[in-house]
Design brief:
Elements lengths: L2 H16 L4 H6 L13 H8 L3 E6 L4 E6 L5 E7 L3 H5 L3 E8 L2 E8 L1 E7 L5 E5 L2 H12 L3
Helix pairs in contact: 3-5
């Protein structure tokens, strides 16, 4: 994950804290938010990326990390208690598409982040290139 993308993720966490939604609220907001690796399985990630991946869960968020084997590249996936409007204040919308009644956005803030606004001021966030990010988001939305 690029430094700029890490700053964007930290900003999202900071915005959520200012809004009064701590990590516990993010984890209990919706089934799947506390188990992000179940939103897109390792097998599904491999099919999307056409590469072998190893999945791990990072505690912040929590976030599912999909590490591409024999590479420094990775994708991340989480459901955060942060509004899309707050993210738009610190990042540029590069492109968007729709899926199942949702709008999926590709944001740039140094790195790429796919963001899907959800109910209750939450967002589905996929860190990494937006082309596979859109595919990760479409897969995850089926389980949210």
């Amino acid at each position: 994950m690029s430094r700029a993308l890490a700053v964007l993720a930290a900003t999202a966490v900071g915005v959520a804290a200012v809004a009064g939604a701590g990590p516990a609220a993010a984890r209990t907001a919706k089934v799947g938010a506390s188990t992000p690796c179940k939103l897109v399985t390792g097998a599904e990630a491999q099919a999307i990326l056409k590469r072998q991946v190893q999945t791990t869960t990072a505690l912040q968020g929590p976030t599912c990390v999909y590490r591409i084997r024999n590479s420094k590249q990775q994708m991340t996936l989480s459901v955060q208690k942060v509004s899309f409007s707050a993210l738009k204040k610190v990042a540029k919308v590069v492109s968007s598409t729709t899926s199942g009644g949702h709008t999926l956005y590709c944001l740039k803030y140094g790195g790429s982040l796919t963001v899907v606004p959800l109910s209750g001021g939450r967002t589905l966030q996929v860190g990494g290139s937006c082309t596979p990010g859109f595919k990760f988001a479409r897969t995850a939305l089926k389980r949210l």
